Amino acid sequence: MRYPVALTLERFASLTALVRHWLIVAGAVWMEYAARDTISRLVVIYLAFLCIPLGDPYHVKSPARRTTA
Predict the structure, then answer these.
(1) Which of 20, 38, 66, 68 is most open to solvent, judged by the fewest CB atoms within 10 Å of its CB?
(2) Distance from CA of residue 33 to its chain's centroid?
(3) CA-CA distance, 24 to 44, in Å (whole number)?
(4) How far apart are CA 31 and CA 36, in angstroms?
């Protein structure tokens, strides 16, 4: 079984979308941990959850998870 190693435009677009969505989650966790008071934590979580529908990361699949028939 051979795995393709070429970075096509489709894979690059999928990779950038995956990284952008990962940054929303990682940034929310990092900023929530760094926040000192309750109001700051609530605002960070609210903004992170607001980014989800605005960024539309609902059905992101990485190229490695796709199956070919």
Answers:
(1) 68
(2) 18
(3) 11
(4) 10
The confidence score (pLDDT) of residue 5 equals: 67
For 63, the token pair is 């190229």
Residues 6+ apart with CB under 8 A from 19: none
Average of per-residue pLDDT values in the chain: 75
Cα dihedral across residues 35, 40, 46, 52: positive or negative: negative
The whole-angstrom separation of Cα 13 and Cα 11 is 5
Measured CA to CA, the distance from residue 22 to residue 48 in angstroms comes to 11
Digit-coded pLDDT (tens) for 35-63 = 888 888 888 888 888 877 776 665 555 55
Which residue has 């952008």 as its token pair?
Answer: 20
Decide: pTM greater than 0.70. no
